């Protein structure tokens, strides 16, 4: 399987796809081109080589390039991934993509949603709103086929000189040294060697990099099998996430339904552990199942697959000069949209740290905080995925009886609604990080230390409307709030953004979400996570917090 299409689930083979879909896939083929490194007299040395041109590898490469780091990105295929695969892209992922230059186009193309509904049989148990707070540029979620996201990222990467994207380049060997990795890369013209200061493995669940290092996952593979069916259907149904426990059209099991662009709908049907994979993929069998669900609505099959999923990860994400991101590092169930979203958030966490190290502005020890913070995120995702799986597919008759009792109580009791788990939807991790400086006084609002800064509507200096996150750069930022005195001076290496001077807060949303009083100061990391805040300006404290977030004063930089 191509590194750009490897998934965190164990899928059946072969995967059925329509003729129309094969034509669509062929539109996204890319030509192999011979690289100058293949003709060099000596082995070339590159700062970073990324393996895998899926969403995570592309996001990592673009982010590093925008921070001034040249990247070689290799993929063993000549096309982007086939099938819709990942479809739900979270608000935090969209904010990252917006900073990378593709967020607005993705939202324009995708199907925006924020409402989820959960049913038991035919009865609505409850609904939920994933973004009840107004004033964010990006929606709670969009649904968009993964190949569209990959296409947007490939086009963005091709527009950046610092990204050298090489198709039909397959990693077949690596040897670690103290300060670099020696790679052997196979191509249609034969193999060549390349040295990399750092190798980033973004080559998916079936990572060849992981195999070359002899690494294994810790965790579990769930035995229940699920059917994915993407269908093309013109239907006037609400744009929302719909999840059923024990629906009349699929008795004793669960079902999930999402709208995608192009009149394509994603349907997941639980099949149980004993399902025959070959039989369940037959179009006539899938069609019969879907007719029971959809009634007389006409539809066409677009994509069929049967999968089991895993909740597991590497014990460590950093092995010498090799760093693992995305599905190559960790795998979760598709319920909750935590796989690709978490991988793109891996990319952002790593990129700013590695860029500072390569520029000599931080020691290599800072990269260790990538492992610490993203293992925290992976463990959160694995925990949520495991709990949702246990609720969706109980292991015993007693567990099933308890689940059904909870579902019966939920319409009447809030405590029961909190116990239901059909897949907790992806949100950004709040890092319990040594890079953060503890608050000196209590803060309210929706902002959290260690979390991404919440977006807010603002007015730019020229009077135009905008959003807070659009005004943050790629480095450390000191966000201050006007108190009648001249704007304070930021420490070296920190940009200043002053509310009331550089931007205005016409509705007071920035101050409310950060619980900021006049004169307050916040420090943001290059990934826009809040790492320190104070009620008043103190240049020395801000500088110390910057050093802490940069890995200094911790024995790692």
Question: Overview of this structure, please?
Answer:
With 557 residues, the chain is an alpha+beta fold. It folds into three domains: 46-112 and 133-219 and 312-386, FAD/NAD(P)-binding domain (3-Layer(bba) Sandwich); 223-308, 2-Layer Sandwich (D-Amino Acid Oxidase, Chain A, domain 2), CATH 3.30.9; 457-549, Glutaredoxin. Helix content is 27%, strand content 27%. The chain contains 14 helices and 29 strands. The strands form five sheets. Strands 1, 2, 7, 8, 14, 15, 16, 17, 18, 19 and 22 form an eleven-stranded mixed beta sheet that branches. Strands 3, 4, 10, 11, 12, 13, 20 and 21 form an eight-stranded mixed beta sheet that branches. It has a four-stranded mixed beta sheet with strand order 26-25-28-29, covered by helices on one side. A hairpin with a 4-residue loop joins strand 11 (170-176) and strand 12. Helix 2 packs parallel to helix 5 and helix 9 runs antiparallel to helix 10. It is globular and about 65 Å long. Mean pLDDT is 91; it is low at 1-15.
Helix content range of the residues, please?
25-40%
C-alpha-based Rg, rounded: 24 Å
The domain tally reads: 3
Structural class: alpha+beta
Q: What is the CATH architecture annotation of the largest domain?
A: 3-Layer(bba) Sandwich
Q: CATH superfamily of the largest domain, please?
A: FAD/NAD(P)-binding domain
How is the main sheet built?
Answer: 11 strands, mixed
Tally of separate helices: 14
CATH class division of the largest domain: Alpha Beta
Beta-strand content estimate: 25-35%
Describe the global form: globular
Low-confidence stretches: 1-15
According to DSSP, the number of beta strands is 29
- Separation of the first and last Cα atoms: 39 Å
Mean pLDDT: 91
The CATH topology of the largest domain, please?
FAD/NAD(P)-binding domain
């Amino acid at each position: 399987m191509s590194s750009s299409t490897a998934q965190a689930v164990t899928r059946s083979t072969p995967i059925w796809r329509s003729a129309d879909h094969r034509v669509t896939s062929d539109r996204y083929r890319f030509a192999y081109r011979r690289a100058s490194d293949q003709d060099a007299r000596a082995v070339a040395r590159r700062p970073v080589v990324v393996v895998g041109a899926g969403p995570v590898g592309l996001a990592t490469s673009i982010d590093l390039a925008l921070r001034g780091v040249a990247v070689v990105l290799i993929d063993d295929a000549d096309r982007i991934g086939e099938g819709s695969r990942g479809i739900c892209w979270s608000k935090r992922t969209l904010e990252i993509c917006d900073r990378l230059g593709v967020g607005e186009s993705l939202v324009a193309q995708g199907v925006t949603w924020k409402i989820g509904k959960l049913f038991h049989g035919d009865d609505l148990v409850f609904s939920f709103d994933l973004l009840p707070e107004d004033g964010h540029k990006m929606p709670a979620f969009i649904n968009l086929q993964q190949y569209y996201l990959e296409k947007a990222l490939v086009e963005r990467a091709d527009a950046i000189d610092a990204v050298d994207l090489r198709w039909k380049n397959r990693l077949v060997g690596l040897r670690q040294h103290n300060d670099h990795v020696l790679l052997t890369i196979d191509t249609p013209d034969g193999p060549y060697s390349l040295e990399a200061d750092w190798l980033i493995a973004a080559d998916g669940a079936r990572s060849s990099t992981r195999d070359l290092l002899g690494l294994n996952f810790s965790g579990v593979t769930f035995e229940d099998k699920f059917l994915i069916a993407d269908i093309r259907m013109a239907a006037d149904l609400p744009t929302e996430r719909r999840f059923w426990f024990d629906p009349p059209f699929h008795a004793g099991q669960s079902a999930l339904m999402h709208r995608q662009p192009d009149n394509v709908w994603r349907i997941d049907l639980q099949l149980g552990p004993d399902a025959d994979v070959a039989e369940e993929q037959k179009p006539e069998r899938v069609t019969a199942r879907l007719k029971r669900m959809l009634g007389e609505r006409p539809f066409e099959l677009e994509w069929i697959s049967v999968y089991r999923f895993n909740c597991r990860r590497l014990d460590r994400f950093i092995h010498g000069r090799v760093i693992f991101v995305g599905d190559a590092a960790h795998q979760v169930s598709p319920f909750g949209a935590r796989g690709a979203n978490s991988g793109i958030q891996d990319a952002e966490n790593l990129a700013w740290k590695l860029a500072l190290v390569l520029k000599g502005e931080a020691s290599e020890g800072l990269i260790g905080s990538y492992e610490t913070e993203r293992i925290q995120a992976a463990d959160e995702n694995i925990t949520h995925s495991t709990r949702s799986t246990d609720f969706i597919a109980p292991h015993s008759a007693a567990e099933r009886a308890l689940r059904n009792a909870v579902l019966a109580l939920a319409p009447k009791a809030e405590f029961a609604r909190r116990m239901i788990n059909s897949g907790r939807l992806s949100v950004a991790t709040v890092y319990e990080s040594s890079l953060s400086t503890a608050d000196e006084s209590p803060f309210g609002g929706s902002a959290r230390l260690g979390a991404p800064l919440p977006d807010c509507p603002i007015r730019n200096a020229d009077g135009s409307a905008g959003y807070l996150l659009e005004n943050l750069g790629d480095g450390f930022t000191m966000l201050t709030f006007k108190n009648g005195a001249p704007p304070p001076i930021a420490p070296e290496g920190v940009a200043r953004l002053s509310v009331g001077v550089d931007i205005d807060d016409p509705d007071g949303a920035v101050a409310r979400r950060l619980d900021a009083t006049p004169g307050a100061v916040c420090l943001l990391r290059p990934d826009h996570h809040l790492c320190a805040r104070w009620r008043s300006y103190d240049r020395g404290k801000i500088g110390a917090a910057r050093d802490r977030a940069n890995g200094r004063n911790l024995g790692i930089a």
